[in-house]
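[Automated response] Your request has been received and processed.

Submitted sequence:
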Amino acid sequence: METDDIIIKKTKEMLSRAGLEAEVESNAHPEIATNYVNIVTYDARLLIGPRGESLFALEYLLKRILEKELGEAPKFFLDVNGYRFHHIETLKEEAKQIAKKVRLYRKELMLKPMAPFERRIIHMTLAEYPDITTESVGEGERRRVVIKPYP
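Generated structure:
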């Protein structure tokens, strides 16, 4: 059985045990370096949780279960109704808009605290801007990205 099939099977199994009805799709996604697994359901709010916390926890649990079964954790990106993908696209657009302001005013701007994957999206999005630099500052849940004009 292929790894994709195992991921889909385990995801469906977990959802079924939780009493949730859902379809599970898996495919390669051009912007995500790993397999993209999307759960399509009417119970999206329950699976996503506040600020995506339930979704991250579900992905973590699923990876640990699969790691135990397969001997290594397969790389995949778990989503519900495209929530995370839409969030990533929104973050990219936000980063580009802030970069325009930094260019215009030649002053650094500090973003709100973010999860590590969100900060990584900001850094990767703005890496292609030669006149902008980014840096993560702060500790723990207060860690955030600072966008600066390149000296």
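Summary generated for your ticket: DSSP finds five helices and six strands in the chain. The first strand starts at residue 23 and ends at 29.
If you did not submit this request, please reply to this message.
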